[in-house]
Amino acid sequence: GIRSVARGIGSYLPERVVTNAELSQRIDTTDEWIVQRTGIRQRHVAAEGELTSHLALVAARRALTDAGFAPGDIDLIVLATATPDQTFPATAVTVQAELGITRGAAFDVQAVCSGFVFALATADALLKSGAFERALVIGAETFSRILDWEDRGTCVLFGDGAGAMVLEAVQQDDARGAGLLTTHLRSDGRHRNKLYVDGGPSSTGTVGHLRMEGREVFKHAVGMITDVITDAFAATGESADSIDWFVPHQANRRIIDASAQKLGIAPEKVVTTVDLHGNTSAASIPLALDVAWRDGRVQRGQLVLLEAMGGGFTWASALLRW
Ligand code: ACO
């Protein structure tokens, strides 16, 4: 049958780095508190006028270069973001236009921190249907724009960035061949008030700020993550032992470590970038995977497990042979 094969990956971080030390000069916090609770040491913050679409575009160009593809090869763009340039049009169509692509389709997906895996599953289904041939799947965020910089409980946690993956529909009958093997998506809107933005076009008419009950999120995260990964293992016959890399959503070091431990995934298989990037929401997985691809850890033919959990709540897993 048709399988979606990852041909390339790319990412982009805004130039400006904000360290914990800098934050501790602005609000009542310390490097020690942030590192101990979250593992975060620094985050990147977009410059004034640097929009989500700008970050996405650079990441997309780098992914195309990595794949050896031209923009004209792409007929589908699925972009995950909770911080679009505008309410509409979709940030994906801005990226499409900037790349000079005039065919196919481009749209945004909104599943907050789980957005990249939701976008990946969406693109995968559309490629498998035969409707499209080559997709750009992007996660791009400027959470710095929706943070309450006076709220020490949230503003220390997030950063800006973007990552992109090029997928191609390939006739693939070898079960051990490259490609996306399974995706599992979940949501439960009963938890929608635990992590949300207190504004929006239909409610307040303002953009609003991120609000979070951190402890409540933490309490649910590990169970949801491990459940949806158990589904991925059950669907494929793979296991904590057979996977080569675990590339989780980078929200919090403690959540990542606890999830890996509960699943029995060896610490040396876990890709962690939360220390340097903070939580970049939908961008965090492709950012982390790109780091591990470029530094030579991730190799062609290896099994890579992705996982995310975020506002909604939404949670999701994906297993692919790179
Ligand atoms: N610096 C210093 N002290 C702080 C800070 C800070 N930045 N933030 C909160 N505190 C204080 C609180 O005011 C509180 O003080 P008090 O006891 O005097 O009232 C104390 O630290 C403990 O606060 P808690 O919120 O209970 O701290 P907790 O141990 O739960 O850690 C944290 C907070 C890091 C947010 C944790 O709950 C967490 O990691 N939750 C998961 C959040 C997360 O990862 N969200 C994103 C996942 S989903 C997504 O990616 C969108």
TrEMBL record:
Location of the protein in the cell: Cytoplasm
Designated name of the protein: Beta-ketoacyl-[acyl-carrier-protein] synthase III
Transmembrane segments: none
Region ACP-binding, residue ranges: 250-254
UniProt KW keywords: Acyltransferase, Cytoplasm, Fatty acid biosynthesis, Fatty acid metabolism, Lipid biosynthesis, Lipid metabolism, Multifunctional enzyme, Transferase
Domain annotation Beta-ketoacyl-[acyl-carrier-protein] synthase III N-terminal: ranges: 107-189
GO terms assigned for molecular function: beta-ketoacyl-acyl-carrier-protein synthase III activity
Beta-ketoacyl-[acyl-carrier-protein] synthase III C-terminal domain: residues covered: 235-322
InterPro entries to which the protein is assigned, alphabetical: ACP_syn_III_C (IPR013747), ACP_syn_III_N (IPR013751), FabH (IPR004655), Thiolase-like (IPR016039)
Pathway(s) the chain acts in: Lipid metabolism; fatty acid biosynthesis
Pfam name, any one: ACP_syn_III
Assigned EC number: 2.3.1.180
Annotated gene: fabH
This protein's domain notes: The last Arg residue of the ACP-binding site is essential for the weak association between ACP/AcpP and FabH.
Biological source species: Xanthobacter agilis
The protein's role, per its UniProt record: Catalyzes the condensation reaction of fatty acid synthesis by the addition to an acyl acceptor of two carbons from malonyl-ACP. Catalyzes the first condensation reaction which initiates fatty acid synthesis and may therefore play a role in governing the total rate of fatty acid production. Possesses both acetoacetyl-ACP synthase and acetyl transacylase activities. Its substrate specificity determines the biosynthesis of branched-chain and/or straight-chain of fatty acids.
Primary localization class, coarse: cytoplasm
Catalytic reaction(s) noted: malonyl-[ACP] + acetyl-CoA + H(+) = 3-oxobutanoyl-[ACP] + CO2 + CoA
Highest rank taxon of the organism: Bacteria
